[in-house]
Amino acid sequence: MTMEMKHEILEKHESGLKVTELACQDERSTSTICTILKQIDAIKSTKTSKGVFILSKLRSDIHDEMERLFLLWIKEKQLAGDSVTETIICEKAIRIYDDLKGKQAAERGETSMAAETFKASHGWLDNFKIWTGMHSVVRHGEAVSSDSKATADFVTTFASVIT
Fold first, then answer.
1. This prediction's pTM
2. What does R_g of the chain's alpha carbons equal in angstroms?
3. Domains of the chain: which residue ranges?
4. b/e for 114-123, b at 16 or more Cβ within 10 A?
5. Whole-angstrom Cα distance, residue 35 to residue 14?
6. What is the pLDDT along the chain (163 residues), one digit of tens a residue?
7. For residue 12, what is the enclosing H or E element?
8. Which CATH topology does 3-57 take?
């Protein structure tokens, strides 16, 4: 169930619908509706990223901005044909996050950065690729070092041989 659906359920409940009516209307169990209602403050107070389904996946503004900048960086690397590994990608995500967190702390006039941390694990990267629909982010070995001119010449030569 998406966060948008949860917001709709909360709005319906606030307009006067009972839990059992909500459960019947949305074809959900009453326990599911009750769980959503227990999280009402957290759901309402937190801005969620697109595609977020569960409350534990709520993202702060820093996460949203980091992922947006990180996606731009990945696309630049892909266009340039640069070699990137999962380790390099995860380290870059952490650096972007830390820079944004430091910038936000400076804007607030805080001397130390908040205790909030971000771990760019390989699991996070796998989920990030799913959220964004990206495939083949990591490039290494022959895919990076291939000679595109030689490849084009081969295709031309091969086409002339088979025709």
1. 0.50
2. 23
3. 3-57, 61-162
4. eeeebebeee
5. 15
6. 777 788 888 889 999 989 999 889 888 898 988 988 888 887 777 655 554 455 444 556 787 788 888 888 888 888 888 877 888 888 988 999 888 888 888 887 776 555 567 888 888 888 888 777 776 655 555 554 556 777 778 788 877 877 6
7. helix 3-14
8. Arc Repressor Mutant, subunit A (1.10.10)
